[in-house]
Amino acid sequence: MGSLGRFLLEKGSRYRQCLSAVKALSKHRLSFWVGATGTSGYLMISPCLSWEALFTFGGIYCCSAAAHSFNQIIERHTDALMYRTCHRPLVTKLVTPIQAGVFGVGCAVSGLLMLNNTCGALAGSLSLLNIGLYTLCYTQCKSL
């Protein structure tokens, strides 16, 4: 294999690692179901698939992903001690806490903007409150 082939394999491997880290930081399956549940409420009011419904799902998904990212930053030392969580990207140093924080802030801002612009300021405010409650209250109460 030539040097171009090795270069492309290395880049592909790095992109797969990055995608794996993003999926783990966001807890993509759980965030998907959180978004689906919230969007089902939206669809009860406006029962047609639309761009607004898609942005509602995206906003909820991103806010959930942000909360999970912040949770993993706070709990990275505890996660290292438990078998169930010792393979998370912050524990394995696949990403740094700063990178996870930037990802979390990016998800939070984009999610809040989507919800604020699609569903209104109340939805955006409640999502921000939810991120704060999950990160500051729930995460801290788990250690009691």
UniProtKB/TrEMBL annotation:
It is found in: Membrane. The keyword Translocase does not apply. It comes from the Eukaryota. InterPro entries: Protohaem_IX_farnesylTrfase, UbiA_prenyltransferase, UbiA_prenylTrfase_CS, UbiA_sf. Belongs to the UbiA prenyltransferase family. Its main location: membrane. It is a multi-pass membrane protein. One of its GO terms (cellular component) is mitochondrion. GO terms for biological process: heme A biosynthetic process. This is Protoheme IX farnesyltransferase, mitochondrial. It holds the Pfam family UbiA. GO terms for molecular function: protoheme IX farnesyltransferase activity. Keywords: Heme biosynthesis, Membrane, Transferase, Transmembrane, Transmembrane helix.
